[in-house]
Specification:
Structural class: alpha/beta
Helix content: 40-55%
Radius of gyration: 19 Å
Order of helices and strands: EHEEHEHEHEEHEEHEEHEH
Largest sheet: 7 strands, parallel
């Protein structure tokens, strides 16, 4: 391809998968990582490392310099935080700073990683509102996506939005909240589970979706990057089978869990 793409959050779970997918397609990649953050997922990859932070506009400007495209993956992904404002600074104000730096650098093509959590239904055009978003993560991603959409409409920013569902696969070293469920289940530390389901997608498929959005997506449009709908009970049973443990038998209704989650958030 020859184009140079800067990837924010390139050392993370999705970011590193996106980096590998870009390299496989012949792109040059500048990997934006925070000082002191793990680069294990980037070991051995022929990337140009740029040290920066979403809260440091000058580092973002430097990272964008000489690049043709941007894939903004970096985010604070936690289901609960003691200070929701801190998450909003990363996911909303950090996104604002990234987009402003890209615009100033003349980046020709941008992919913004949002989440299916921002959608109001199973399709890309399903309407949603901020008061539908439960928890600081969903709210911050909704606000970030609204910010990006406004910049597309008002400033002509060339952004395509992707909305991944629940990625799973190698490289989830931190791990993410979903990865933590897998680890805890594999270790036999989940005696019960919530009666719910997830749409799970291999992280490499999610990464491929990012590249396709970069190449073929329509500016201003959003694209769901999903996989298979699975009851959580089936996911946990498959994990138990793989590690030779009995699956959790106690099933908790969602209605009993949501009030507890909301109380913890407040």
């Amino acid at each position: 391809m020859g184009d140079r793409v800067v990837v924010t959050g390139a050392g993370g779970f999705i970011g590193s998968a996106v980096t590998r997918a870009l390299l496989a397609d012949g792109y040059d990649v500048r990997a934006l990582v925070r000082a002191g953050s793990s680069r294990l997922n980037l070991d051995g990859l022929p990337v140009d490392i740029a040290i920066g932070d979403l809260g440091d506009p000058e580092s973002l400007k430097a990272a964008m310099r000489g690049c043709d495209a941007l894939i903004h993956v970096a985010a604070d992904y936690r289901l609960w935080v003691p200070d929701p404002a801190a998450m909003e600074r990363v996911n909303v104000e950090g996104t604002r700073a990234v987009m402003a730096a890209a615009q100033a650098a003349g980046i020709r093509r941008i992919v913004h990683t949002s989440s299916v959590a921002t959608l109001g239904g199973p399709t890309e055009d399903a309407p949603s509102r901020l008061d539908h978003m439960i928890g600081p993560y969903k709210r911050s991603k909704f606000l970030a996506e609204q910010l990006v959409r406004a910049m597309v409409a008002e400033a002509g920013l060339p952004v395509v939005i992707v909305n991944p569902s629940t990625p799973i696969g190698p490289g989830d070293a931190r791990p993410t909240p979903t990865g933590r469920i897998i680890v805890e289940a594999a270790l036999g530390r989940m005696p019960a589970h919530v009666d719910t389901g997830l749409n799970v997608a291999h992280v490499d498929d999610v990464a491929r979706g990012h590249v396709l959005a970069l190449e073929r997506g329509r500016v201003g449009e959003r694209y769901i990057l999903g996989g298979d709908d699975m009851p959580l009970a089936d996911i946990l049973a498959e994990i138990a089978r793989l590690v030779g443990r009995p699956p959790p038998r106690l099933r908790l209704p969602v209605a009993a869990v949501v009030p507890v989650a909301l109380a913890a958030e407040g």
